[in-house]
C-alpha cells in the first residue's frame, strides 16, 4: 500500500482539546480549523489541529477532518449561538460575556463527547477508522 494512501490508517489519536478548540474556532473566526493527518500514512496516526485560509490538501496529500465529525452530533447541535445584537455597549458586553461562559461550558461537555470512530475520505470512498482519545 502506498505511503500516501489514507486507507492504511486503522486508528487516529486525537486530543479532545484539539477537536473542541477547532470546532469553536470555526464558529467564532474566519478561516477553517480542522484535524489534519499528513503522509506518510500508517496504521496508527496522530491528528493535529490545523488552521488555514487556503486548502493545500491537493499539494500535501493531507487528510482534513472536520471537528464536527469527531464530536457527538447532539453536542455539536448544542453549541451556543449569539442570537441577538444589541446597540447598547453595556448590553453587548454582557451578551459577549454570557456567550463566552456558555462556550466554555459547551467545551467541557464536548471534550467528553469524542466519537469512537470516524470516516476518512479516500479515492475509493469512505474508510472508517477508530478514534483514540489522547490525554
TrEMBL record:
Recorded superkingdom: Archaea
DUF8009 domain boundaries: 3-135
Protein name: DUF8009 domain-containing protein
Amino acid at each position: 500500500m502506498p505511503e500516501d494512501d489514507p486507507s492504511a490508517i486503522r486508528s487516529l489519536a486525537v486530543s479532545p482539546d484539539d477537536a473542541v478548540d477547532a470546532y469553536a474556532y470555526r464558529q467564532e473566526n474566519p478561516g477553517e480549523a480542522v484535524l489534519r493527518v499528513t503522509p506518510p500514512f500508517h496504521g496508527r496516526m496522530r491528528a493535529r489541529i490545523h488552521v488555514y485560509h487556503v486548502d493545500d490538501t491537493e499539494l500535501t496529500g493531507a487528510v482534513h477532518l472536520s471537528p464536527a465529525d469527531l464530536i457527538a452530533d447532539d453536542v455539536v447541535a448544542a453549541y451556543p449561538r449569539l442570537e441577538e445584537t444589541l446597540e447598547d455597549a453595556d448590553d453587548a458586553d454582557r451578551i459577549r460575556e454570557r456567550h463566552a461562559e456558555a462556550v466554555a461550558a459547551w467545551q467541557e461537555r464536548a471534550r467528553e463527547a469524542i466519537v469512537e470512530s470516524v470516516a476518512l475520505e479516500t479515492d475509493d470512498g469512505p474508510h472508517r477508522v477508530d478514534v483514540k482519545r489522547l490525554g
